């Protein structure tokens, strides 16, 4: 009889402990998923800067450019944003990346706290009316997605010095290049930037798994914003 009660007690413990743990975590626990920060700032000697023991991270640049509707965009760090670089005549990675970004724009079309900024690396050709046609053909008629153009050097400086992404016009070095896809060289990376201007995610624009991760991590930032 004693063995019977012992077995019953053990069974109750085995069944009860997981339930207790679940209830405890449900009531008192906090499921916190924090995104990393990218690009720490370096001092003149190449050492990582810190203040009171905390690493100082690069802040994405503010910018002033024109969108596909000829509206002047004065970007200040207030919203969560996704940044990409492309050009309308691109026939390789850009169409894939922008089709993937359609899903992102659609997911957050009702949320004014998320913006997508796609900078053209061919601004001489990609004037606002060209970008407007491009966006229309793509189906990217979302108020949260801006296709940006402006001064070429200004955009290139934003990419290289501000967002830490490579961009180049190869025709400036080789006048024999005639293939447009070999002319403008740029990264297919997407950057996720929080409302303080810190870069919190880097994704391959052509990779669907990365796009899925981007959608999830945008939701994390929106929740914490």
- The low-confidence parts are 1-31
For the secondary structure, the number of strands is: 11
Q: Profile the largest sheet.
A: 5 strands, mixed
The CATH superfamily of the largest domain bears the name Glutaredoxin
Task: Indicate the CATH topology of the largest domain.
Answer: Glutaredoxin
Strand content range: 15-25%
What number of structural domains do the residues give? Answer: 2
What do the pLDDT scores average to?
87
Task: Count helical runs.
Answer: 6
Spatial extent as radius of gyration: 24 Å
Helical proportion, percent range: 25-40%
Q: What series of H and E elements makes up the topology?
A: HEEEEEHEHEHEHEEEH
Helix-and-strand structural type = alpha+beta
Q: N- to C-terminal separation?
A: 60 Å
What would the principal axes of the Cα set say about the shape?
globular
Give the CATH level 1 class of the largest domain. Alpha Beta
Order of strands across the biggest sheet?
A: 7-6-5-10-11
Features:
alpha+beta, 225 residues, two-stranded antiparallel ribbon, globular, 11 strands, Glutaredoxin, 6 helices, 2 domains, five-stranded mixed β-sheet, 38% helix, disordered N terminus
Can you describe this structure?
This protein has 2 domains: 1-31; 50-224, Glutaredoxin, CATH 3.40.30. It starts with a helix and ends with a helix. The chain is globular and about 50 Å long. Mean pLDDT is 87; it is low at 1-31. The protein has 6 helices and 11 strands. The strands form 4 sheets. The chain has a 5-stranded mixed sheet with strand order 7-6-5-10-11. Strands 1-2 form a two-stranded antiparallel ribbon. A two-stranded antiparallel ribbon has the order 3-4. α2 packs parallel to α6. The chain is α+β, with helices and mostly antiparallel strands and 225 residues long.
